[in-house]
């Protein structure tokens, strides 16, 4: 799009990737794709419900087409809806349905018949159109039915996806420019919980035993995981063990495995190993609210000040300064000194906030850092390695958590928008300074960019502050750690929170006049709200009562960023609350989080109304029955699968299974090697079990899960009610 401040934005072009295109690239589509012109006749969406049958009769018989209803049609009018009708064409004859005003979910229930003569056309064409009084009608999509196939089947009924009109010629490829995209489609069938228990128990047993066991399974997963998917595998494993209360034990095992193969202290945890990636995911999943508390005020101040900051003399821009009429060029030395002073203030504020945040740091993070500190100190004792345990902690805390968040605050939800060029440079220099502090101000780090020298006094002072902070951070009392161990298994999933505008139904479905802005918080217990983030929260919906979370038609409230949460109140009556988000990204994140935490709820709806019940009918399909089941299907399992989504243990187990299935050949080869070289006295992971036995069990578990996916009924009963079905991320 080309943004226009006064008039409507102009369309430059589009890229269209079909589901088939994405399915042909299991690892995702990545590359440059040409923009093509946007033709309204191609911008179609939705489905149409048809019943088609061949009726025996005189001569060749008759073709009967019943046009029942349609859903999710493209909104072509300014009111966010369409005035759809259907045109049925066969063998030179055309018949049309009535027009349904202001609806993207129309119902017709009209039937048309055509003679089936010998030599008649082989295709029946059903087209959906948006009726317009003044301008020409807009094309909404078409379905072409093969009559010969229908003749053999005699009858066919179902939902048909509307297709675009692709008969027009195309402008030369590349004439509108190109977009570089990385797109991935994942469609997973999540089985009942009981199916994954053997896999989960096998992996948990390995983690609980740690290095006292064989260590084979976790190290084999790392060995068979390619670099490009290691982050994803690490996140899946981390979330699985976090849900089992074993995140600290899992990370500790990875620490020990990496320390066992590392001889040089200065290379420790600097590679993209499974330990590094898992710890990175751990901090994002568990420590995000802590990060916001420490970094938020500093990042906000940098964005608000918008000061010009530069320390590299080769990049300095000298500008005019002074009062009106008294401008004088600012010298390079003045620019450098002012920039250094600004960065000293920001760095000092950050380090001070970090020093005060020991108790604010989540207990599980403190316990994990404590274990890391101990393991590294045991592996590298001696005065010459005094700083190594501290650098091990800062390699994660500073280099993989604080610095990335400073450089890209939007990706860590610290800001709503990316920074402009000037602010980005300030953030980059601040991140470099934090990295220097995290590296404990080593000569090597100073030598890389000598122009960072003006910050050295603050960096040196920061090193002392950081070491003092880490010393306090890892100094957890034994009693506190024991209390932590008892609560780890009850870790609450990450919280989704933020400002939303609420619009509730009232009385007999009449809507209140306007939305009201409140601060909402989603936990594993309820969706709550408050007037401000710090004020007392009131529960709005108990999580167990949610029946669906879906989008709302744009025409309903004049906004495309409204969602509805359908739930049961204490009396068992169905209620709906409408929540407006600030943008489409925020809308999708809230829908994803709500669906993830309610996925196991009994009584999830299979259909819903994307409109509102206003007056005496639904705005979407014009049905007058308020208790009507709904005109569109719900999408309860369509989620974003982001790192900040609530935990879904079965999904994580499914994703781990899917990965292991992809490397099954390598696992079998390793099992053959272990079996061939097995000797008396091999390391054992349990009574009578050798390392190859654990791998054999894993391979058998994979076979059982593969069979369960084929049959859908080979699993033991789940411990909790589940609703198996496709999940798209």
Structural overview:
The protein is of the alpha+beta class and 729 residues long. 38% of the residues lie in helices and 20% in strands. The chain contains 20 helices and 26 strands. 35% of the residues are buried. Helix 3 packs across helix 18 (649-662), helix 9 (332-355) runs parallel beside helix 14 (456-473) and helix 19 packs antiparallel against helix 20. Mean pLDDT is 84; it is low at 320-324, 488-494, 507-513, 680-688 and 717-729. The protein starts with 18 loop residues before the first helix and ends with a strand. Strand 2 and strand 3 (62-71) form a beta hairpin. The chain has four domains: 40-161, Immunoglobulin-like (Sandwich); 187-244 and 647-728, no CATH class; 287-488, GTPase Activation - p120GAP, domain 1 (Orthogonal Bundle); 496-633, Pleckstrin-homology domain (PH domain)/Phosphotyrosine-binding domain (PTB) (PH-domain like), CATH 2.30.29. Strands 14, 15, 16, 17, 18, 19, 20 and 21 form an eight-stranded antiparallel sheet that branches.
* Number of DSSP-assigned strands: 26
Mean pLDDT: 84
Count of individual helical segments = 20
Low-confidence stretches at least 5 residues in length (pLDDT < 50)? 320-324, 488-494, 507-513, 680-688, 717-729
Mind telling me the CATH class of the largest domain? Mainly Alpha
Radius of gyration: 31 Å
Distance between the termini: 26 Å
> What is the domain tally?
4
CATH architecture type of the largest domain: Orthogonal Bundle
Name the helicity range.
25-40%
The CATH topology assignment of the largest domain is: GTPase Activation - p120GAP, domain 1
Q: What class do helices, strands and sheet pairing give?
A: alpha+beta
Anisotropy-based shape: globular
Note the beta-strand portion: 15-25%
Reported for the largest beta sheet, the result is:
8 strands, antiparallel
CATH superfamily of the largest domain: GTPase Activation - p120gap, domain 1
């Amino acid at each position: 799009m080309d943004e226009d401040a006064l008039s409507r934005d102009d369309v430059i072009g589009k890229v269209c990737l079909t589901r088939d295109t994405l399915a042909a690239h299991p690892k995702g589509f990545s590359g440059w794709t040409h923009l093509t012109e946007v033709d309204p006749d191609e911008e179609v969406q939705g489905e149409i419900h048809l019943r088609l049958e061949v009726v025996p009769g005189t001569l060749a018989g008759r073709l009967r087409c019943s046009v029942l209803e349609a859903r999710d049609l493209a909104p072509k009018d300014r009111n966010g809806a369409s005035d759809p009708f259907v045109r049925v064409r066969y063998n030179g004859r055309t018949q049309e349905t009535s027009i349904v005003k202001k609806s993207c979910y129309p119902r017709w229930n009209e039937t048309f018949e055509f003679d089936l003569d010998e030599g008649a056309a082989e295709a029946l064409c059903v087209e959906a159109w948006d009726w317009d009084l003044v301008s020409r009608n807009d094309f909404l999509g078409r379905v072409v039915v093969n009559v010969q196939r229908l003749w053999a089947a005699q009858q066919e009924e179902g939902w048909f996806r509307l297709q675009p009109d692709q008969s027009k010629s195309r402008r030369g490829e590349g004439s509108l420019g190109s977009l570089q995209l990385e797109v991935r489609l994942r469609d997973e069938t999540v089985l009942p919980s009981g199916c994954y228990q053997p896999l989960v128990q096998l992996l948990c047993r390995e983690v609980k035993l740690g290095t006292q066991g064989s260590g084979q399974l976790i190290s084999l997963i790392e060995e068979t995981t390619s670099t490009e998917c290691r982050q994803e595998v690490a996140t899946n494993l981390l979330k699985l063990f976090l849900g089992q209360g074993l995140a600290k034990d899992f990370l500790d095992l990875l620490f020990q495995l990496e320390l066992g193969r590392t001889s040089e202290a200065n290379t420790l945890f600097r590679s993209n190993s499974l330990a590094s990636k898992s710890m990175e995911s751990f901090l994002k999943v568990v420590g995000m609210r802590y990060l916001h508390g420490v970094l938020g005020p500093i990042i906000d101040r940098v964005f608000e000040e918008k000061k010009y900051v530069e320390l590299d003399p080769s990049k300095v821009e000298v500008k005019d300064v002074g009062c009106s009429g008294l401008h004088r060029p600012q010298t390079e030395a003045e620019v450098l000194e002012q920039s250094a002073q600004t960065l000293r203030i920001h760095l000092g504020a950050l380090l001070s906030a970090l020093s005060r945040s020991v108790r604010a740091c989540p207990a599980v993070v403190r316990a994990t850092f404590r274990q890391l500190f101990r393991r590294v100190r045991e592996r590298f004792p001696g005065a010459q390695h005094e700083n190594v345990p501290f650098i091990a902690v800062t390699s994660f805390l500073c280099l993989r958590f604080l610095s990335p968040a400073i450089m890209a605050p939007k990706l860590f939800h610290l800001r709503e928008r990316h920074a402009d060029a000037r602010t980005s440079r300030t953030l980059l220099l601040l991140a470099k300074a934090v990295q220097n502090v995290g590296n404990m101000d080593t000569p090597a780090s100073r030598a890389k960019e000598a122009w960072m020298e003006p910050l050295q006094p603050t960096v040196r002072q920061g090193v002392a502050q950081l070491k003092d902070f880490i010393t306090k951070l890892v100094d957890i009392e034994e009693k506190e750690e024991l209390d932590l161990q008892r609560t780890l298994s009850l870790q609450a999933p990450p919280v989704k929170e933020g400002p939303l505008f609420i619009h509730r139904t009232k009385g007999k479905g009449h809507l209140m006049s306007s939305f009201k802005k409140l601060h909402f918080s989603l936990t594993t217990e309820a969706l709550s709200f408050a007037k401000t983030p710090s004020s007392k929260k009131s529960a709005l919906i108990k999580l167990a009562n949610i029946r669906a979370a879906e989008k709302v038609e744009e025409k309903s409230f004049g906004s495309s960023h409204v969602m509805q949460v359908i739930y049961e109140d204490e009396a068992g009556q169905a209620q709906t609350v409408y929540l407006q988000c600030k943008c489409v990204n925020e809308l999708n994140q809230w829908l994803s989080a709500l669906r993830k935490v309610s996925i196991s709820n009994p009584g999830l709806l299979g259909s819903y109304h994307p409109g509102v019940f206003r007056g005496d009918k639904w705005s979407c399909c014009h049905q007058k029955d308020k208790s009507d089941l709904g005109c569109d299907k719900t999408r309860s399992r369509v989620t974003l699968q982001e790192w900040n989504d609530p935990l879904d243990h079965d999904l994580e187990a499914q994703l781990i299974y899917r990965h292991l299935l992809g490397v099954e050949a390598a696992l079998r080869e390793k099992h053959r090697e272990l079996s061939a070289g097995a000797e008396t006295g091999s390391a054992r992971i349990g009574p009578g079990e050798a390392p190859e036995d654990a791998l054999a069990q894993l391979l058998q578990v994979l076979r059982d899960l593969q069979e369960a996916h084929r049959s859908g009924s080979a699993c033991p009963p789940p411990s909790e009610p589940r609703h198996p079905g496709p999940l798209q991320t």
